[in-house]
Amino acid sequence: MAAARLCSLPGRALCQHVLGSVRLQRGYRGDSPTDSGKDVLEIPLPPWQERPDEPLETKRARLLYESRKRGMLENCILLSLFAKENLNRMSEQQLNLYDRLINEPSNDWDIYYWATEAKPTPAEFENDVMAMLREFAKNKKREQRLRQPDLEYLFESPR
Q1: Closest CA to 42 of 113, 111, 107, 112
Q2: Which of 4, 103, 98 is closest to 45 using CA atoms?
C-alpha cells in the first residue's frame, strides 16, 4: 500500500518524502562566496622557456599550431586569425615576443582580457606585438570571426 502511494507521487514530491528535510540543490559549488576552494586541483605548468636556436620557419609553424590549439575557443579563434594575418611578416624579435605572450601566462583568459582591453596588460607583456593583437581584436573591418581559418592558406603563394 505504501509503495503504491510513493509511486503515484510526482518526482520531486517522491524525493522530498524519501529524503525528508534534505534539500536538493543544483549548480556548481564554486558559486558560493564561502567556498574554500580546497576541492580545486591546480596542475602546475612547466615554466616557459625561450628557444633561441629554433629556426624561424620552425618557430612560425610551432606558433601557428599553438595559436590554433588553445584552452578556450575565444582564443583559438582570435589567435589563429591573428597568426594567419601576422606571423609571416613578423621579425624574429616579434616572434619571440609573441611566443612569450601566448605561452608564458598560465591562464588563457588573461591573454583574452588583455587583447580585448577588459583588463590592463602587465608591463612585462606590453610591447608592439601586444599592441598589434589589441588592434586586431578591435576588428575594425567588421569581419565575421566565427571559426579558425582553414589551413589551405599555408599552401597559397604569398600576396
Answers
A1: 107
A2: 103
**Cα Dmax for the chain:** 82
**Three cell numbers written together for 24:** 536538493
Q: Distance between CA atoms of 150 and 84, rounded to whole angstroms?
A: 10
Contact at 8 Å (CB) between 136 and 75? no
Residue at 131: amino acid letter: A
Q: Are 52 and 42 in contact (CB under 8 A)?
A: no
* CA proximity to 151, closest of 61, 91, 70: 61
Threshold 0.85, pTM exceeds: no
DSSP letter string, the chain: -HHHHHHTS-HHHHHHHHHTTPPP--S-GGGSTT---TT---PPPPPP---TTS-HHHHHHHHHHHHHS-SSHHHHHHHHHHHHHHGGG--HHHHHHHHHHHHS-S-HHHHHHHHTTSSPPPGGG-SHHHHHHHHHHT-TT-----SPPPGGGGGSPP-
The predicted-structure confidence for 1-42, as pLDDT tens digits, reads as follows 555 555 555 554 544 555 555 444 433 344 455 666 677 776
Closest to 88 measured CA to CA, from 10, 17, 3, 155: 155
